[in-house]
Amino acid sequence: MQVGKRIFLKRELPDKNLIEKYKKLPSSNVADCMNRRGAMAPRIKLMSKPKAEMCGPAFTVHNRPGDNLTIYAALKYCHEGDIIVIDNEGDNTRAVIGEVMMTWLRDQRHVAGVVVDGPIRDIDSLRNWDLPIYAVSTTPNGPYKEGPGEINVPISCGNISVNPGDLMLGDADGVVKIAREKAAELLPIVEKFRQEDEAKAASFHNGTGNIDWLDEKLKNKDYKIIDDIYRP
After folding, report:
1. Binding residues for substrate, per the UniProt record (predicted)?
2. Residues annotated as binding site?
3. Residue closest to 117 by CA, chosen among 220, 194, 36, 47
């Protein structure tokens, strides 16, 4: 088997009930409960206008920079509800997917989202789509179709590792990866955190909240509070 030109058709997938429950949770709460890690680099931004959060299992694509032959293979082999996650090896010179391929993914494969660590094109149309689309940028430059590339192997996207079947969650803040094998264990922690976070926001709104912990924290971190005007 030639490494670099492999397409794996099977993945271990998260439970569908978990996916439905994670759909109700903000990406920020999930990241906070993973020690404030797991979010993709902020260069990967939401480019469309989905009505709901993106949530589903990762269908990973590792393509040659600026080439989309392997992404075309993903159009053939992906499944309904998948999140197509594309490792473009940091290249930002050529769009690797645009409206034509996105239309197939949306209307024929019914994927739940697309995440590209690189440029896309046809943004005048795609920016109004309900399908969650995340990418780094846009450019008119198109891709080549030569390969190599691989499907459903471990990849790097947005400076984080993504394995096939990992749970991907995305909203206006960005994209978070939840390791498939940790998703069930993490869920109740995030749900509890969300309740506490909402209560905190409500207390700040109605004036009953406080930041009494702050003075001690600043003192322990050796901050100096100076009751005077700054003078160079």
Report:
1. 98-101, 121
2. 98-101, 121-122
3. 47
